[in-house]
Amino acid sequence: MPGGKVDVPRDSMPPTAQRLVVLIALLCLCGSAFLWPDPGRPGSRARAALPACSTSPTPLSGLVNGNTLSLGNGTTVTPCIANAPLHLRIGYSDGATGGSTGSGTAFTTDGITFPDGKYTMRRTGCALGITSDTTIAKPTILKFADGTQSAGPANRDTFPSPGFLSCGTKSNVYAANGWPTTFAQSDDAMLVHMRLKNLQINRNAFMTVTPQSNPAAPTVAGTGEYSLTFAPGDQGSAGWNIGDSCVFTDLWLRADAHIKVNIFGINTTVGSLAGDDSLWGSILSSIASMNDVPGLELDGWVYYMNSNKGSDCTGSPTTLNLPSTRIGVAP
Amino acid sequence: VSAAARSWGVRWGRAALPLLVGLATLAWFAYEAVCGSVMGLGGPNLVMQGRSAEFSTARLSTTNVGFGIVPIKAGSSTRYVLRMAFASGSLDGFCLSQTQSILGADFTIRVTSRDGAVDVADLTGRNIQFDVTSLTSTNAPNPSGDGIALRGNVSLGLATQTLTTWQSGGVDVVNPLDAPESFAGINGRLFGIDSDVGDVYNVKGDIYDSVIEGPITIKNLQLEVVPGSAASSGCKALPIVY
Question: How far is the C-alpha of B115 from the C-alpha of B124, rounded, in Å?
């Protein structure tokens, strides 16, 4: 209609309202573009420098100090270890406190060794001719990421010399060795380096991780923030393969770990298994060199575990295989 | 009013419905952005954040693996998940589903990628991460393996912050799993597993977040919205895709 004003149809808005709606629509479009999902990674943010992880524990002379750890394949690692041990149970009815499941072989290994050797702690009693030497697997003193430190051996009274009338002034092992006493002293809680080769787990195995506040007293519940569990779907038959004939599994576990192998009826804890000179000299050397050592039970708190290939490995063997496994994080 | 003049007018009344749909979509994006609950293709990446979902794959092959416990925000609270991170990887079959309730009815959004051939990659990407709360594995449909199979040196017990997966400029990225940047208290008690190489076979699980960074190659991508709950229509209820 030249020269004329267009009438607004009844079902349309006035031009001003139309412009307003178009403006709103454009703003919506722009707003949607800004609100589109962040294509970055969840929680992505500028990365601040991480503080250094504590790896230097208070040294105890004569023991293995520090977090530079030797592996079966001859290399070393310097891990930053979380204070969240792995409770490894093989041959039991559950991952907490359930009992043993019988006499059938639950795992096999081509040798059990304590590569750091032994440590003899001399204690002198106040009686003529009484000296008490305690031989233990040499403990490793580790510092954990949260700043805590693993325990040293238990402190014990000792005297300068045995005798009826004069034993000297009573002291203790820590004072005699010049060790600090600012951390836990516990034969149970100290960590021992145990090495297995070609560990094959046949049945009834559980791994449960719980964060802990005190390395000297880990509990099944831990601090309660989380628990991480690994369990075979079929406990009766499904197993885990942590190795190969050429693969070592190095464990740093509490010395009160319980182990039962079906050779010479050994049924003891790691600490006491290592704690007798006669065992060191005979049975242990046998276990160290045997193939297919049949294991019945293993129950221990593992703070660090490393599966590594030996120099005799060819190809790329699996070092950790968890078939038919249920993994869960709770709560 | 002539017919020609009428043809230039906009039928705002008739446009009201699509306009309302658009505004509702905008409102939903705004809500999801604020609540951090998003699932979709964000730029070159596949992103799902902040709400429980299900996934499955017949095989995930990768180099440089890190599994570590990390805290995440789930609604207004903090919970811990096992962040399974892979520097780069290929998936033989992939299913990701999330169920939402709208006006009392359950709908499941499902993303799948598969070609029906075993041991042939359907999706590849880098810096793949799944925040897992539960995971199960079997020996089918991919007969090549079952569950987690790690090779090379494997460490268990490392602090999550010190795991290594992907590299930038040939150097390991610090804290690639985005764990808390301190070791104080619980932050020093976050358990991690590190491995050089690994495969994960025939798994189904519950996850909170997932990211697959681009460039992504996806075969036969299928996006479905189906009525039904997770129990009937989620990835865990279906056979593992491959």
Answer: 14
